[in-house]
Amino acid sequence: MARMHEARETPGARRPRTAPSKARSASGDGQPRVFQDYQNALELMQDNKFEKARALFEKILRDAPPELVERVRMYQSVCERRGADSSRSFASPEEQYDYAVSLLNAGSFEDARDQFDAILGTYPNSDFAHYGVALLNSMTGQNEEALEHLARAVELNPALRIQARTDPDFIDMVDDPRFTELLYPEIP
């Protein structure tokens, strides 16, 4: 009968070293490099560096564990979309407003808010941008904020009072006495 040899370490003998895995971090903490890259990519997204984040997500996909793949693809898609949005330029704030309204009508509320906020960041006294934010807030159930922006829009352009009276996007606010008071100040 052949005898199986047992692997024994002899005192003073060296174990063969194995090369560190490429998926391990350089710090030796054992955390896979993929997860460090994932965290870095998320931070790049938060800093609005969408192209760099997209490239890092693409790199991550090569070694990502199955439970991370779908999430990485989703974030990569977000980066592609946001990167394209940030490169978009508008000839006027009115053109940007029209784009924001199209996003609003498509149900892309966060993207629409970003566009309205960008207009107000540059043109804080833009009556139509305040009106757009009021619409958005009304549609998303943020009535307090809707009233604030609508009041500011009407203050800047009283003609918007008449438009708001017939705007179906304010339908959820018609029972609020503050809304009625804002739009019909002539009724005691």
How would you summarize what this structure contains?
With 188 residues, this protein is mostly helical.
Structural write-up:
The chain has nine helices and no strands. By secondary structure, it is mainly α. α4 packs parallel to α6 (127-139). Residues 1-31 have low confidence and may be disordered.
Please write out the topology.
Blueprint: H1 33-46, H2 50-63, H3 66-86, H4 93-105, H5 109-122, H6 127-139, H7 143-156, H8 160-166, H9 177-183
Helix pairs in contact: 1-2, 2-3, 4-5, 4-6, 5-6, 6-7
Task: Throw out a few tags for this protein.
elongated, 2 domains, 62% helix, single chain, mainly alpha
CATH topology of the largest domain: Serine Threonine Protein Phosphatase 5, Tetratricopeptide repeat
- Number of separate structural domains: 2
Please give the CATH architecture of the largest domain: Alpha Horseshoe
Q: Which structural class do you get from the secondary structure elements?
A: mainly alpha
Poorly predicted residue ranges: 1-31
Query: For the residues shown, what is the average pLDDT?
Result: 81
Cα shape: elongated
Instruction: Indicate the radius of gyration in whole angstroms.
Output: 28 Å
Q: What is the CATH homology-level superfamily of the largest domain?
A: Tetratricopeptide repeat domain
Count every helix, treating DSSP H or I runs of 4 or more residues as helices.
9
Q: Could you name the CATH class of the largest domain? A: Mainly Alpha
